[in-house]
Amino acid sequence: MRIDTLSPAEGATSRVKRLGRGIGSGHGKTSCKGHKGQWARSGGGVRPGFEGGQMPLARRIPKRGFHNKWATRYTIINLSQLEKVPADTVVDFEYVAANSLAKEVKNSAGLKVLGTGELKVKLTVKAAKFSESAKAAIEKAGGKIEVIG
Q1: Segment 60-113, tens digit of pLDDT
Q2: pLDDT score at 103
Q3: Beta strand 75-78 with 111-114: parallel, antiparallel or unpaired?
Q4: Beta bridge pairs of residue 144
Q5: HEC string for 9-77
Q6: What pLDDT does residue 149 have?
Q7: Which long-range contacts (CB under 8 A, 24 or more apart) does 107-113 make?
């Protein structure tokens, strides 16, 4: 196989519609725009979402919810995920990201540990926040807690 022999798959490309090139082309005279009217004009047409003066769908549907752009977003991890970690490991944000323990680790202000599940492994956990049940479970298993910044 050589680069000069490559071509698109059969049916993957279509010919360019050449407008205004005579009556025989089928795209001559009005160039497929019909006669007169808003759509036949240069730059004609309406903006996306315009519904002819009718109240647009985007404005008919009620607004719902609130997104606080100043809220602190943490990467959430539960004790059930920490149960799989080998004993005497230091678990911090970098460890969680490297081992894919949390669903989403990007755009995060740090790690927050919640107490869902059981922990029987001794770990050192470094995180920004802990729930009370998570603190109790980690210390009960013989591990240590370090609150970061």
Answers
A1: 999 999 999 999 999 999 999 999 899 999 999 999 999 988 888 878 889 999
A2: 82
A3: parallel
A4: 124
A5: CCCCCCCCCCCCCCHHHCCCCCCCCCCCCHHHCCCCCCCCCCCCCCCCHHHHCCCCCCCCCCCCCCEEE
A6: 74
A7: 107/73, 108/73, 108/74, 108/75, 109/72, 109/73, 109/74, 110/74, 110/75, 110/148, 110/149, 111/74, 111/75, 111/77, 112/74, 112/75, 112/76, 112/77, 113/77, 113/78, 113/79, 113/82, 113/138
Residue with the two structure tokens 């997104």: 67
Global confidence as pTM = 0.58
Tokens of 126: 């470094």
Q: Quickly list DSSP for 64-116.
A: -----TTPPP-EEEEHHHHTTSPTT-EE-HHHHHHTT-SS--SS-S-EEEE--
Six-digit token pair at 16?
Answer: 């360019």
In one-letter notation, the amino acid at residue 83 is E
Query: Parallel, antiparallel, or unpaired for β 124-127 and 111-114?
Result: unpaired
Residue whose token pair is 């798959």: 9
Return d(Cα 121, Cα 44) in angstroms, integer.
Answer: 68
